[in-house]
């Protein structure tokens, strides 16, 4: 099936000139090595080039002839070629690659190389992408290195096969059949990840189960690690802080207790004996009911450092999550992670990296960047994005997330003056950190198309590309993805790219315009629920976030309110504090303003908000039209699939618009402005909708 093949379609080129051009530069493939990874690379080149060029390209192990495509790691290259490339080798890091047209013994060849065979594999995929996207392979001179070390997926997969916030079927990991049964999907998964430079995967949910650390499961984890290894993908696990009690029979999990310390040391030793390249642990501690060091009067530093000591002898890392908020202090949830973690700056061990969500609340359609970025110069911080669309319409809404990711990465923290972007925090350049990383909460499941929505594949793809290079722009990513997934035809690319590029703002418009946030329905977060006010904790309720009343709407986080703005550098705080300079897209995130507040376009807030909701719906109508016009460029299967999904998206966009406007209208007491369609249902109707099953809950 087409959509199983993701962005690795390797569609046959129908332009004979192009085929001739490529063929003339690739008269043969020379594979210099025989490692598992180079076998993978060779197979990829053969499949890719043979399919795209429609003929079999001969493979050889020596450079004999001309116009050969030669690949192998540095040491496999002939000394003369190594010398020729010496400057380039100096310029790349461990995972970086070189793709270069060279002349060797008066013959032209293309060489793909790097310092090790995984880097070469990245180079091979990058080369194939050139051909996939119809780029020239004339006089190549590409020297590229990833800007972060840990480029990792976080699977929120449970041992019972369900996926928390997963909208693409069940977990890929079949724990029952492992270790003996190696599903082809594990291999295809690894291959897809390698093709975009992802080099790590956390197999298990952050809401962790200690069982994964028992021998029965470790044997299964080992089997997966063995499959992933040739693709350069390291396995990591979530560590349940109370595991020493639950599976170790200890009385405590106190990180200062000698038996606990020893238990984690022994456990780590056991894991590394099976999996010598095990990546390390990801930990959610003292957050949403998960156990942690605070259960024993210790703090996050004690907990993280104890685990860090356990894995340090083996080169492992601890990714300690900063997603914490306490029920005892619900005054402003947005402030809590910063308040709790920033004082720890400089106290974590070298192999600890603190994993911070992109925004201070929780993966909303739009959030200002998390104030922790740039605020802990002595601590490596890694980014946590959510690829799975928990708050973005699940896998039924087409929302191209690289736009969101880029917006966050480009944001300027001003922590070291102008230009201190989040990307510079993440790639370590702002504060000189060697340990760097980007995590993405996976949207992958057992669905044939992997991600539920064919276009959600682009979010996995885009995440990987941005993890490799946080400075890439979303448009380049969209272009690459469309070409390698669907078609190189400009008539298709142009409208579809525009549709993707606008899709995130579209979702913001019909869900949470002007800085609104967390007004999704209870628990499952499916559809609108701005009226919800009965959940156990105040900060779980939408009413806590929008604070609509007859005077206006919005959460005052400025200095006259919760003062969350003070957690940013002064330049940023000032910008957000001041109504005149606070970007309108973040208005209600930072301010409570009256329904009559004048927006920049001269409209009142109420009118402007209503029109935004309407605009969101109109934009989905446009998406439907755009897609319908692409029929002749796409296979029927994917065409139909997307067409049906867009109809759901349209229906749900209207649901969002009508439910939110009817609800807020009770407070504004104003009529809908002209241009906004009248709701066809009552507020009571929307409130009465119940979803005993919503996926991912
Ligand atoms: C929230 C999810 C919840 C996760 C939590 C987390 O609703 O399922 O467990 O974040 O990131 O977004 O730990």
Automatic annotation (TrEMBL):
Domain of life: Bacteria
Boundaries of every Alpha glucuronidase N-terminal domain copy: 6-127
Family annotation (Pfam families): Glyco_hydro_67C, Glyco_hydro_67M, Glyco_hydro_67N
EC number of the protein: 3.2.1.131
Alphabetized InterPro entries for the sequence: A-glucoronidase_C_sf, GH, Glyco_hydro_67_aGlcAse, Glyco_hydro_67_aGlcAse_N, Glyco_hydro_67_C, Glyco_hydro_67_cat, Hex-like_dom2
Principal EC category: hydrolase
Catalytic activity field: Hydrolysis of (1->2)-alpha-D-(4-O-methyl)glucuronosyl links in the main chain of hardwood xylans
Ranges where the Glycosyl hydrolase family 67 C-terminal domain occurs: 451-676
All copies of domain Glycosyl hydrolase family 67 catalytic, residue ranges: 131-450
GO molecular function, one term: alpha-glucuronidase activity
Alphabetized UniProt keyword annotations: Carbohydrate metabolism, Glycosidase, Hydrolase, Polysaccharide degradation, Xylan degradation
Family: Belongs to the glycosyl hydrolase 67 family.
Subunit-structure text: Homodimer.
Name of the protein in its database record: Xylan alpha-1,2-glucuronidase
């Amino acid at each position: 099936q087409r959509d199983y093949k993701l962005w690795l379609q390797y569609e046959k080129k129908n332009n004979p000139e192009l085929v001739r051009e490529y063929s003339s530069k690739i008269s043969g493939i020379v594979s210099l090595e025989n490692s598992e990874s180079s076998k993978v690379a060779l197979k990829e080149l053969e499949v890719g080039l043979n399919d795209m060029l429609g003929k079999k390209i001969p493979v050889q192990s020596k450079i004999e002839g001309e116009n050969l495509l030669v690949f192998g790691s540095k040491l496999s290259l002939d000394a003369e070629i190594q010398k020729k490339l010496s400057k380039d080798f100096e310029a790349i890091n461990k995972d970086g690659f070189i793709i270069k047209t060279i002349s060797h013994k008066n013959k032209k060849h293309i060489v793909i190389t790097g310092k090790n065979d995984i880097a070469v594999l990245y180079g091979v995929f990058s080369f194939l992408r050139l051909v996939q996207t119809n780029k020239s392979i004339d006089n190549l001179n590409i020297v590229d290195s990833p800007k972060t070390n840990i480029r990792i997926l976080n699977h929120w997969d449970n041992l019972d096969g369900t996926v928390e916030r997963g909208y693409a079927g069940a977990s890929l990991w079949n724990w029952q059949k492992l270790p003996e049964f190696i599903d082809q999907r594990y291999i295809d998964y690894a291959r897809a990840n390698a093709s975009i430079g992802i080099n790590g995967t956390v197999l298990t949910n952050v809401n962790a189960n200690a069982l994964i650390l028992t021998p029965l499961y470790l044997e299964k984890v080992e089997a997966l690690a063995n499959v992933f290894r040739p693709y350069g993908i390291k396995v990591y696990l979530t560590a349940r802080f109370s595991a020493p009690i639950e599976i170790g029979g200890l009385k405590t999990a106190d990180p200062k207790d000698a038996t606990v310390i020893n238990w984690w040391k022994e456990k780590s030793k056991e894991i590394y004996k099976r999996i010598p390249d095990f990546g390390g642990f990801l930990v959610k501690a003292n957050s949403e009911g998960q156990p942690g060091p605070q259960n024993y009067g210790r703090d996050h530093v004690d907990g993280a450092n104890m685990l860090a000591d356990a894995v340090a002898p083996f080169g492992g890392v601890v990714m300690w999550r900063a997603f914490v908020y306490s029920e005892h202090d619900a005054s402003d949830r947005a402030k809590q992670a910063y308040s709790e973690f920033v004082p720890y700056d400089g106290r974590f061990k070298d192999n600890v990296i603190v994993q911070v969500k992109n925004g201070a609340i929780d993966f909303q359609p739009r959030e200002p960047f998390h104030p922790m970025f740039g605020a802990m110069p002595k601590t490596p911080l890694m980014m946590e994005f959510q690829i799975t669309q928990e708050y973005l319409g699940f896998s039924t809404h087409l929302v191209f997330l690289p736009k969101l990711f880029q917006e966050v990465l480009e944001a300027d923290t001003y922590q070291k003056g102008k230009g201190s972007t989040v990307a510079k925090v993440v790639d370590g350049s702002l504060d000189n950190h060697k340990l760097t990383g980007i995590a993405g909460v996976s949207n992958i499941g057992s669905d044939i198309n992997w991600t539920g929505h064919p276009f959600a594949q682009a979010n996995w793809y885009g995440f990987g590309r941005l993890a490799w290079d946080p400075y890439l722009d979303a448009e380049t990513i969209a272009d690459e993805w469309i070409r390698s997934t669907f078609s190189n035809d400009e008539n298709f690319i142009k409208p579809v790219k525009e549709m993707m590029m606008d899709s995130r703002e579209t979702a913001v418009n019909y869900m949470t315009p002007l800085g609104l946030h967390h007004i999704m329905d209870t628990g499952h977060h499916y559809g609108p629920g701005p009226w919800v006010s009965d959940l156990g904790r105040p900060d779980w309720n939408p009413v806590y976030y929008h604070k609509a009343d007859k005077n206006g709407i919005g959460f005052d986080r400025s200095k006259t309110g919760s003062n969350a703005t003070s957690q940013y550098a002064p330049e940023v705080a000032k910008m957000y504090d001041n109504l005149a300079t606070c970007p309108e897209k973040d208005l209600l995130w930072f301010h409570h303003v009256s329904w009559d507040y004048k927006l920049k376009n001269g409209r009142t807030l109420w009118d402007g908000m209503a029109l935004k909701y309407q605009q969101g719906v109109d934009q989905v109508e446009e998406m439907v039209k755009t897609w319908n016009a692409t029929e002749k460029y796409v296979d029927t299967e994917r065409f139909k699939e997307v067409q049906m999904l867009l109809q759901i998206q349209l229906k749900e966009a209207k649901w969002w618009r009508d439910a939110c406007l009817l609800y807020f209208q009770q407070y504004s007491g104003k009529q809908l402005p002209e241009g906004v369609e009248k709701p066809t249902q009552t507020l009571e109707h929307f409130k009465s909708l119940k979803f005993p099953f919503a996926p991912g809950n």
